[in-house]
């Protein structure tokens, strides 16, 4: 570009005649597109600002006449090449933007395209895109197209779940004359239900005395879900089996209580199949096994048979002879022994 009314070249024309016959007049006869140039005396003048993006060169045809009568004339040609300068910075369609991505977006997915133009021509109008504030390495930017791709696995549950990256559009003006525009892009990750609740153990062992009161706490299970919000809320339930009616499981705390009378003599142990599920729709689940051992208590009287009997023996019965055999049973585990409550020295068990 040039400032208006500026001398761009002094023209030298030689006419060997003397006097008026040697006085030369120069005019532009062709090629003066949009009247950008004029001749003043022997000077080529620029009348208006040039624009490389509009016209890259001018070919001026000159008429040259002397002042004789009749005048003698000739012609000349001047080629003017317009040199470009880096006038315009890349123009983005916006200076800030935002988008929301599900955390399970696959690596390699195109998620955004930067729009930028540069009205300069040639190298000065070529745009290169770069990115800053991408310390996590979660995204990659194509420097030529401005396309933004997911580079690695995203995880809402690992901070940060909101990122702001800076994208720069730089033209080809070189180190000293390059011009830049900036876009601030905020990316928010959207939580998805991608983690099931996990129990701390695949087998829980608990013990309970028989005949304890209803509502007695015997233990608890615990599962943790790495998701956030409703997807990370954990609930519990006992799957249908023999122990389901005997035990109550709090569906939010995982605490297990007795719900009915428990008798060692009926079952010595129970296996509860417990499922943990989250708040997703559909829910993600995991299972564990709870072994409940019933501890025996001496809660049953032994039963003796016969319980009431009158027998007759001969006075000649020798010492140590068996005169009666009793049968006894006890619902508890073992009978510890027999003894006589009322006796004389004549009998022993």
TrEMBL record:
One GO biological process term: homophilic cell adhesion via plasma membrane adhesion molecules
GO cellular component: plasma membrane
Keywords, comma-separated and alphabetical: Calcium, Membrane, Repeat, Transmembrane, Transmembrane helix
Cadherin domain: residues covered: 8-92, 93-199, 200-304
Classification via Pfam families: Cadherin (PF00028)
Cellular localization per UniProt: Membrane
SUPFAM superfamilies on file: Cadherin-like (SSF49313)
UniProt keyword annotation of Lyase present: no
Molecular function GO labels: calcium ion binding
Top-level taxon: Eukaryota
Descriptive protein name: Cadherin domain-containing protein
Lineage of origin: Eukaryota, Metazoa, Spiralia, Lophotrochozoa, Mollusca
